[in-house]
Amino acid sequence: MAETITQPETLLSPEFMHRLDRLDVMSRKILRGRMQGERRSKKKGQSVEFADYRSYVVGDDLRFIDWNLYARLDKLFLRLFMEEEDLSVSVVMDVTKSMDYGDPNKLHYAKRVAAALGYIGLTHYNRVNLYTFADTVTDMALGMRGRRPIPRMLSFIQDQQPIEGEHVSGNLAVVCKRLAMLQRQPGIIVLLSDFFDKGDMADALRYLGGDKHDVYAIQLLSPQEVDPAKGHILGDLRLRDIEDGDIAEVSVSPALIKRYKTNLQAYCQHVREQCLKRGVAYMISETDVPFETLVLKYLRQRGLLG
Amino acid sequence: MPILGLPLALIGLAALPALTAIYWLRTRFRRQEVSSLFLWSLVAQAHGGGRRATRLQTPLLWLLELLALLLLAFAAAGPRIPRADRVVPVMVVLDDSFSMSAVQDDGYTVREAGVDAITQELGRLGPFTARFVVAGPAPTLQEGAISRLADIESNIGDWRCESTSSSIGPAVALAREVGGPDCRVLVISDHPSPDAQTPGEGSEAEQEATVISTNNTTDQAGRLRWRAVGQPQPNAAIVNAVRSTDPQRDQVLIEVANYSDKPFSATMTLSASAGADSKTGLQSDTDLGQSRVIDQRTLDLAAHETRRLRLVPPKKSETLIAQLDDDALTADNRAVLLPPAREPLPVAVSIQDPVLFKAVRSAVQASGAASLETNQPRLMFTDRVRQGPASPPTDSEIDTATTSATSPDDRAATPVPWRVEFEVPEAEAIDAYLGPFVIDYNHPLAAGLSLTGLVWAAPTTESGLPVVGRAVVSAGDVSLITERNLSGDAKSLRIRLRADRSTLLSSAAWPVLIANIIDWQRVELPGLSRVNARPGMPVRLRPNTPVDYVEVMYHPLSGALTEEAVKRIEVFNNVAILNSDRPGIYHVSAGAESHLYTVNALSPEESDISMAVTAEHGLWNDERALRTDYRGLAWILGLAALSLLALHAWLQYRPTGPSSAVNSEATT
Fold first, then answer.
1. Total tally of structural domains belonging to chain A
2. Residue B515 — left, alpha, or beta (φ > 0 → left; ψ -120 to 50 → alpha)?
3. Contacting residues for B3 by C-beta, under 8 A, at least 6 apart
């Protein structure tokens, strides 16, 4: 079941790229960018869009004085315009062994989502950063902007493999802390993970919470995780955690599956609550949902894309 | 004690592990990888990594099936319990051969091991009644029956294990006759059952197998149980001890055998004792004890070697005792040889034909039991055939055979000599007979006589003299040897033979025939026929004075005087026949006379205990016994199995309620 699909051409098809060209990454917050871009900034700048007036003080640029208003009121007022800046889009992808599971494979699914978001970000001159993590941040591709780094981005995503190791298991708290240190520029952070983390979820999200980042948490689950019966997980089984090798011998019965589903729902609800508490947009998707549908429909509905 | 009528059906128990394997294979934990265990750990207790032993799951249905199979297998095996009112009749056949007295490694004798075996076998039966048959040379039924294990030893006092052979086959036949069709027969021996031996493994066993199988009937099959309690051990033994019967040429031949796969060194001591005398008998315990060593030598015997020793006793009147070192079997380590008690038979030969004359003389001398005497012969070989009524030989005939003169008084006191008359026909009036020869083997002359392949030239029916008397050997209707009575106790034997046209004189049958003739006459002499007898060989005693009976007292070979019961033997026709199968020294009293003879334990078959085994063969419970003595339990077990299966079916198809508790197992 755990099979990594690593063919580059399977991430984004040319037809799908054309459809992505019409989309842009949207932020729920107005975030400060580093360079001028196509996005309205909190800063008052030099765009054509009027923002406000304020009283002239010595030293202001005389070019922005509203002379018509001075003629009517005999007072100097300065015209302020909206500043347009670029947007930092960070896609953080979980590459733990638990992601290398399911059919369709969760990691492959996450790669395609990351590629789509990165592609959209780059085509709209946003600053795109890619991170992968397992027990900590394991790889990153930073500062990509414009269409030129699209192949580099795709190659980076394509090269990601599940992190092997006996004691390598997801540690979201460490990852979020590390991300907070690495990603000082405000922006959009999209977390792609199954969030099967044995640590404290609230403790992890607090590093990314606040107004600095607009965080999206997309929880990916395989159909076999949602319904173990689809993975023929039935009968007397010696279950092995592919991340840490833990073993449990379970006699899986329909009743037990029912209880498992209840537990899964409760856990997902817990993740959702923790996300909402920290202002993180949460959404969940099964990997048997067509990738195009997720990107073109659900992410637009959630406001990440527009 | 419960038994199984068809133990082979217990093979069905193999279904138990098979069922368990099926359950195990079906319910064992398949290996399955999941992305994360923590969701499962909420519903099942997970444990740390690493492989652990998997405990077999034991669902109730499996237990029920297991139990049902167990019951069905036992039901098929036909379990039976003894009926409360049954008493099992048992006949115990005891091998009385002296090999049963061998001492085993644990210090116990084979006989003691046999008693233990009897106790075990009878103890398993429940209520029983047992009788014993001692299988010596002839089977002997012991008096009384026992029904308690404690009485065994008291009822087998006659089981001394001193016989030189054991007639187990006839003993089993006797046991079956006495015990009836419902009895069980237990054989205690030190060698395996003939049924368990391959053909050719032993002549003794083959004979027993023949006898036992002959006596087996359909309804008796399965009623014989054989317990061999022997132990193979090396043993050195005196297997032959012979002393010449001619006092003039006193010689001793002793054969010592090593029945072992390894070389063996034994010291043989030859002692002489003057205490035991065939005329006077044993006088005290020390008669044989006060012997003096006349020869002592160490015999280095190779594996399975038999060595012959020829010795000349220093004194003809002394008893010789050959003794080997003690080993596992002591019964065959001692042989006692008494001095000859009887003088050689005086024989006269009066034959004209020089070839025949020489042949007769040579054969007489070779017999070792006769001497060529011209004075008062007791047996006369002559070629003068008398016609007409039987009468004693004339004086002229005796004179012809003797060279020394005898007085008329002596002749009157001399008993009438027996005559052996050779009828020698003319060469033109003979027929050569090649056989088949008809021999009357009931006649003493026929002992060991074989004429197969010989040419016997005898007068034709027309040319020969009229034949009178009983034919001993004949060829068709032509009598070759006939016997008739003379006056008194004397007998006459006529042998119709043309020596130069026959091959009889150059064959082994000739000395045998002459020796038989001499023995035939010797038994008529007063005294014992032999003093050094072999086991089972009858000894004849002709008292000097007529008596109605003789008394026989047994002493062991050691010479010790024991309190054995004196046996009284009837005397018929002034002859008492003494059958002695038990090795020892026999003291015979006939009126005022006293005689002594010995029987030595000379039996190579019994001395060879290297083939002894510990084994069990045969079952007591046949169909008939199961039917009559036991009550079947199969139906109860079958019913129980049926009930279990019904419960199983109910459990499997019963209506189920809300989802039951999760059956999760975690190894511990």
1. 2
2. alpha
3. B79, B80, B621, B626, B630
B21 sits in the region (left: phi over 0; alpha: psi -120 to 50; else beta) called alpha
Which one of B32, B51, B659, B660 would you mutate to disrupt binding with A, by most A Cβ within 10 Å of its Cβ?
Answer: B32
Confidence of residue B399 (pLDDT cuts 50, 70, 90): very low
A 10 A CB-CB count for B543 gives: 20
Residue of chain A whose Cα is closest to the Cα of B661: A255
Q: Taking all residues of chain B, what is their mean pLDDT, rounded to a whole number?
A: 78
Tokens representing B12 are 């069905």
- pLDDT, position B400: 46
Report helix, strand or coil for B237: strand
State the best of B36, B57, B662, B664 to mutate against chain A, taking most chain A CBs within 10 Å: B36
Domain edges within chain B: 3-79+634-666, 88-232+611-630, 235-338+602-607, 345-520
Tell if the CB–CB gap between A101 and B35 is shorter than 8 Å. Answer: yes
For B25, the closest chain A residue by CA position comes to A236
Is residue A186 situated within a structural domain? yes
Residues A67 and A173 in one domain: no
DSSP state letters, B609-629: -TT--EEEE--S--HHHHHHH
For domain B345-520, give the CATH number: 3.40.50
Nearest to A137 by CA among A177, A77, A84, A193: A177
- Identify the three-state secondary structure at position A255: helix
Same domain? For A78 and A90 the reply is no
Most confident listed range (A211-215, B83-87, B124-128, B361-365): B361-365
- What is the mean pLDDT of the segment spanning A60-76? 88
Cβ-Cβ contacts under 8 Å for A152 (sequence gap 6 or more): A141, A144
Answer yes or no: do A23 and A55 share one domain. Answer: no
Residue A48 is part of which domain span? Answer: 39-84
Mean pLDDT of A230-254: 81
Q: Determine the residue among B27, B40, B57 to mutate to test chain A binding: the one whose Cβ has the most chain A Cβ atoms within 10 Å.
A: B40
Structural domain includes residue A7: no
d(CA B664, CA B29): 11
Is the domain of A71 the same as that of A143?
no
Same domain? A53 vs A20: no
Name the band, by pLDDT with cuts 50, 70 and 90, for residue A109.
very high
Please give the average per-residue pLDDT across B320-333, as a whole number.
86
pLDDT surpassing 60 at residue B358: yes
Q: Which is the CATH superfamily of the domain at B235-338+602-607? A: Immunoglobulins (2.60.40.10)
Intrachain domains B88-232+611-630 and B345-520 with the same fold: yes
Residue B340 near residue B318, CB atoms below 8 Å: no
**pLDDT score of A33 more than 60:** no
- Do residue A256 and residue B34 have CB atoms under 8 angstroms apart? no
pLDDT > 90? residue A112: yes
Nearest CA among A90, A89, A91, A87 for reference residue A42: A87
User: Is residue B117 scored above 60 in pLDDT?
Assistant: yes
Q: Flag the least confident range among A49-53, A183-187, B495-499, B571-575.
A: A49-53
CATH code of the domain containing A190:
3.40.50.410
Which residues are paired to B259 by β-bridges?
B235
User: How many Å apart are CA A243 and CA A99, to the nearest integer?
Assistant: 9
Q: What's the CA gap between B373 and B359, in Å, rounded?
A: 16
| Assigned fold of B88-232+611-630 | Rossmann fold (3.40.50)
- Residue range B549-564: mean pLDDT, rounded: 76
Q: Chain B residue with minimal CA distance to A246?
A: B49
Q: Is A1 inside a domain boundary?
A: no
Q: Does A206 lie in the same domain as A64?
A: no
Give the distance from residue B649's alpha carbon to the nearest chain A alpha carbon, in angstroms.
22
Is A245 in Cβ contact with B47 (below 8 Å)?
Answer: no
Residue A218 is assigned to a structural domain of this protein: yes
